[in-house]
């Protein structure tokens, strides 16, 4: 058989196999959409004690906000760098567009490592391909 015909058939076979493969899904090959979170930072300033806030110099406790995860390759691991100050409602977000909530721990009079002010505190959001983004939290006392 003619070598040119063999090369043509060989090239066509390679091209057909690449096209048939499809290259896998975003989760296998990496998403064309960059990993991101919304919002990328949350800032809470305690209300003055006269307005029902905590004593002067202390920070708020309770719900701080909800954060949505987009792009990248699901699932997403949440790494809380300050578990004594910040409470996340989960340690992993399973799907793109999923969310998690952030709350601040109440001050524990018997354990000084629980609750209080922290600025900044970081939450690392990491996708299954090890790409990461940082959520920056600021919990500030009333002035």
Q: Between the first and last Cα atoms, what is the distance in angstroms?
A: 87 Å
CATH class: Mainly Beta
Low-confidence stretches: none
How many domains would you count in the coordinates?
1
How many H/I helices?
2
Structural class: alpha+beta
Fraction of helical residues: 10-25%
Shape: elongated
Could you report the average pLDDT, rounded to the nearest whole number? 84
How would you characterize this protein structure?
There is one protein chain. It contains two helices and nine strands; from the N terminus they run H-H-E-E-E-E-E-E-E-E-E. By secondary structure, it is an alpha+beta fold. It has a single domain, classed as Immunoglobulin-like, CATH 2.60.40.10. The protein has a five-stranded mixed sheet, with no helix packed on it. The chain has a four-stranded antiparallel sheet with strand order 1-3-7-5, with no helix packed on it.
What characteristics describe this protein?
five-stranded mixed beta sheet, elongated, alpha+beta, 9 strands, 143 residues, Immunoglobulin-like, single chain
């Amino acid at each position: 058989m003619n070598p040119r015909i063999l090369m043509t058939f060989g090239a066509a076979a390679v091209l057909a196999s690449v096209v048939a493969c499809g290259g896998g899904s975003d989760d296998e090959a990496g998403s064309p959409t960059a990993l991101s979170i919304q919002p990328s930072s949350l800032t809470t300033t305690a209300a003055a004690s006269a307005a029902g806030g905590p004593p002067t110099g202390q920070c708020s406790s309770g719900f701080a906000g909800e954060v949505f995860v987009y792009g990248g390759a699901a699932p997403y691991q949440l790494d809380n760098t300050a578990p004594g100050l910040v409470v996340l409602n989960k340690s992993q977000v399973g799907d793109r567009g999923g969310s998690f909530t952030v709350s601040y721990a109440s001050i524990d009079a018997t354990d000084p490592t629980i609750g209080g002010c922290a600025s900044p505190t970081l939450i690392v959001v990491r996708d299954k391909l090890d790409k990461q983004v940082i959520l920056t939290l600021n919990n500030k006392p009333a002035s």
